[in-house]
Amino acid sequence: MNNELSQKEINKLNITGFAGNEILFFEESSSTFDLMHSLDLHTGLTVVCAKQNSGSGRLGRNWESRKGGVYLTFALMPPFEKFEIPFITLVCAVGVCKVLNNYVPSMIKWPNDIVSGNKKICGILTRNMSQKGEIQAVLVGIGINVNNSGFGDDLPHASSISDILKEEINENKVLESVLNEISHAFDMSEEEILTEYKKLCLNLGKEVKLHFLKNGEEMKAICTDILPDGTMAAQNDTETFYVNSGEVSLKGIY
Ligand code: BTN
Questions:
Q1: Residues 96, 90 contacting (CB under 8 angstroms)
Q2: Does the predicted TM-score (pTM) go above 0.70?
């Protein structure tokens, strides 16, 4: 069996839900997000790349995207009736984390990193496509480190499933399971997702170091809850903080 992503292997996948109802595969691109902009979007349309030359990560960072990883973006079109847009990332994190747990022990580091041990093996980034202030589509980008390795000194906390397991994984199968599990997660209720998310969340009940991006201040607190809009509640001796992912980064886990 060929472990590498290819259109031929992707055509054979058993896709059971809306995510991946149409899959377009590219050997290489700048980013799966960029490709989406030239396509006629519909809910479930998924673009997959074997390699990205300019992958984007959260907080304006780059996403290392050499061959061996699974890089995908899928589209969601309005109306967004079931889940609020910020909640969509949590839904996807639950779906992806469940799949990765079938390979290596995996947890969610708030808001949406998937980590195994103290290494990040997957990142999720959701972007809104808007026109005249109106949201035209939500694009969910997911980068999974499957068979890629050789992360540079600048990424000491990154690893891949194959680096951890010391064996090669079928990238097409990972893609299939991730898309199916995400569709399944979208069938769950908000309450069920939140319960699952909290079970998988590494931070809950632990000390977190909040790094406020606005002023560079740092603060230690205990993560006490994850709210339905994805906000994290954290408490120290005197205060409770409600933080969203754009405002803080967490230190101390990697
Ligand atoms: C993060 O920083 O944790 C989020 C990383 C998201 C990477 C994925 S790979 C597929 C999609 N295309 C991109 O350019 N980025 C996302």
A1: no
A2: yes
Helix axes 85-100 and 190-200, enclosed angle (nearest 10): 50
Residue with the smallest CA separation from ligand 1 atom 9 is 143
Q: What is the pLDDT along the chain (254 residues), one digit of tens a residue?
A: 689 999 999 999 999 999 999 999 999 999 999 999 999 999 999 999 999 999 999 988 999 999 999 999 999 999 998 998 989 999 999 999 999 999 999 999 998 899 999 899 999 999 999 999 999 999 999 999 999 998 888 888 999 999 999 999 999 999 999 999 999 999 999 999 999 999 999 999 988 888 877 788 888 899 999 998 889 999 999 999 998 876 666 665 65
CA 4, CA 25: separation in Å to the nearest integer? 12
Kindly report each contact of residues 218-224 with a partner whose C-beta sits within 8 Å and lies 24 or more positions away, as own/partner.
Answer: 218/251, 223/110
Q: What string of DSSP letters covers 137-160?
A: EEEEEEEE-SS-----TT-TTB--
* Ligand 1 centroid to residue 57 C-alpha, Å: 5
User: Which among 236, 243, 240, 237 has a CA at the least distance from the CA of 213?
Assistant: 243
Q: Are 54 and 11 in contact (CB under 8 A)?
A: no
Q: Please check whether residue 142 is in contact with residue 96, taking contact to mean a CB–CB distance below 8 angstroms.
A: yes
**Residue matched to tokens 């990205």:** 52
> Which residue's alpha carbon is at the smallest distance from atom 7 of ligand 1?
143
Contact 72, 100 (CB under 8 A): no
Report how far ligand 1's centroid is from the alpha carbon of 55 (Å).
6
